[in-house]
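Researcher: We plan to redesign the surface later, but first we want a full-length starting point. Tokens attached.
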């Protein structure tokens, strides 16, 4: 155990030092308006140079600072959460590999070197999702890996298509003509496809809740600042080019529908980690739709502030799960405020930040995004989806508070629930500071001149009213229960099928697995029976075996020492010679 604690401490100290240095460098470059671009050529093929490049500007360094800070807290937290695991050292090294892959992705201005970090994230995430070696983890890991492979193929196609420019640095396309050539338009559409697979937008949303099979510290890192934000960060870097492509119109619809889908599903979910994963999915929809409207700086602002309170929310959830004996069903919790006051306080703080409570981290970015969206030229459907998704966020957050934190005590009498593990409590305090102050700090530093948004009073008050209404609805509807059936479900639907439809992400997990695999496996089974075990056997292995067997028997019969056989063969040869003559 001493080695595990030592490894946690050394990893935390190293990453905290990296985070501090990156943050100071980022502030210096933000003040000076400069940056560093390092590039060296590896080799050249047909006038196309293969280069390794790194860019260190305020955006990449600030993002790395947040990644390193959250990673340091997660690794220290893992010392308590994973203390009973025999392979905890392997887990630590996998998490460090994950952070290194994210570093490669963030500092790479070259689409080829981006692929190194991109594939590294996919590979290590698969290894972490299947860390608990069981059937459920294996299925979740395969769904995660195959969904992300679609994006990997899209990145490879982008590399091939952009290669005609003579290089793969996206810095070359900052001042590109707004009227994009057709092949560049197609390549940017493929880049958007890669981003929506990595950031789990519709129709690739099923893998994000499934990835909750990984240990909770992985979820705190993956679903806050690393894997799921990789697609958003890539689009932010390419925003100058992708904003002119035809895929941006589609991205706005996908982002808005993903917000609505995730918020609606979270109100029917009972798994604690999946509820938080669906809230991540909803916030990723916010970032994507913000990018589609052309506000890349706002999307980056929300990405950073979201990383802080979402990592805190996952770590609080892990502390609760660890205390209640591994159960993730919120219906078996309740009344935890009396046993884990510090964890519950920080979980409520993260929930309020997620809802956009004034002057917490989420308020500064979320309120600004909503006001910019309301003042933009978006269509009516996207406007209503924004409003409803905002209300649903508050609804499932207060529902989570009621079931797990403030309701009746539903645990067994043998449960030992407390806040005594300092290895888990101290990192949560570190992230708690970020969940309170990160939003205002980034707003003051990155946006020194405030946005002037003029809206009517009813539009200004709309996010606040919708959030309050959703919160009240989410808390009090779930208090109305009669034995086991929830009366709240009757407000949403009139039958079990409707509840199942809304609670299963509109059947996306089934469509992504059985819907794709069943027809392919059925066709494969028919081909296996008709070809592999049919005609291929008849004319292949079994056919050749029968033919050779029959020929061997004939030769063996002809070589028997029998006079009548020799006479018959002589007669046949003689007749043949006579005919030929």
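Model: Full-length starting sequence:
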């Amino acid at each position: 155990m001493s080695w595990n604690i030592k490894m946690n401490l050394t990893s935390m100290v190293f990453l905290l030092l990296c985070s501090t240095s990156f943050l100071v460098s980022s502030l210096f470059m933000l003040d000076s308006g400069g940056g560093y671009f390092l590039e060296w050529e590896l080799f050249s093929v047909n006038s196309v140079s293969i280069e390794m490049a790194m860019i260190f500007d305020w955006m990449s360094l600030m993002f790395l600072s947040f990644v390193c800070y959250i990673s340091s807290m997660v690794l220290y937290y893992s010392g308590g959460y994973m203390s009973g695991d025999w392979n905890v050292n392997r887990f630590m090294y996998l998490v460090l590999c994950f952070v290194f892959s994210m570093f490669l992705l963030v500092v790479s201005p070259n689409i080829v070197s981006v692929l190194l970090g991109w594939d590294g994230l996919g590979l290590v995430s698969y290894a972490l999702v299947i860390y608990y070696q069981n059937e459920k983890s294996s299925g979740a890991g395969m769904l995660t890996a195959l969904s992300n492979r679609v994006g990997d193929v899209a990145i490879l196609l982008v590399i091939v298509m952009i290669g005609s420019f003579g290089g793969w640095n996206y810095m070359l396309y900052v001042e590109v003509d707004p009227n994009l050539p057709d092949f560049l338009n197609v390549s940017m559409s493929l880049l958007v496809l890669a981003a929506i697979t990595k950031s789990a937008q519709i129709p690739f949303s099923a893998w994000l809740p499934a990835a909750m099979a990984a240990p909770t510290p992985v979820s705190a890192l993956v679903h806050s600042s690393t894997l799921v934000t990789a697609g958003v960060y890539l689009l932010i870097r390419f925003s100058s080019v992708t904003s002119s492509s035809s895929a941006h119109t589609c991205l706005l619809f996908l982002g808005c529908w993903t917000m609505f889908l995730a918020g609606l599903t979270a109100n029917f979910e009972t798994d604690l980690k999946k509820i938080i994963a669906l809230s991540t999915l909803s916030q990723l929809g916010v970032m994507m739709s913000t990018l589609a409207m052309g506000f890349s700086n706002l999307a980056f602002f929300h990405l950073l502030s979201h990383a802080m309170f979402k990592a805190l929310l996952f770590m609080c959830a892990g502390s609760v799960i660890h205390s209640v004996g591994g159960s993730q069903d919120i219906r078996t919790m309740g009344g935890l405020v009396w046993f884990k006051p510090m964890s519950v306080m920080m979980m409520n703080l993260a929930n309020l930040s997620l809802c956009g409570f004034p002057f917490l981290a989420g308020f500064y970015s979320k309120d600004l995004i909503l006001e910019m969206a309301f003042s933009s030229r978006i269509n009516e459907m996207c406007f209503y989806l924004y409003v409803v998704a905002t209300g649903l966020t508050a609804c499932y957050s207060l529902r989570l508070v009621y079931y797990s934190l403030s309701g009746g005590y539903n645990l067994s009498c043998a449960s030992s629930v407390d806040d005594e593990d300092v290895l888990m409590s101290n990192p949560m305090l570190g992230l708690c500071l970020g969940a309170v102050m990160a939003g205002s700090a980034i707003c003051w530093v990155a946006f020194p001149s405030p946005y002037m948004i003029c809206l009517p009073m009813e539009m200004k008050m709309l996010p606040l009213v919708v959030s309050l209404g959703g919160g009240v609805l989410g808390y009090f509807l779930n208090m109305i229960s009669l034995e086991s059936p929830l009366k709240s479900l009757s407000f949403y639907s009139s039958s079990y099928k409707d509840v199942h439809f809304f609670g299963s992400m509109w059947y996306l997990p089934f469509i992504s697995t059985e819907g794709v695999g069943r027809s392919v496996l059925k066709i494969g089974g028919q081909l296996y029976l008709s070809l592999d075990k049919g005609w291929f056997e008849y004319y292949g292995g079994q056919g050749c075996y029968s033919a050779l067997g029959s020929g061997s028997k004939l030769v063996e019969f002809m070589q028997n020492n029998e006079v009548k056989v020799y006479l018959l063969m002589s007669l046949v040869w003689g007749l043949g010679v006579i005919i030929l003559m």
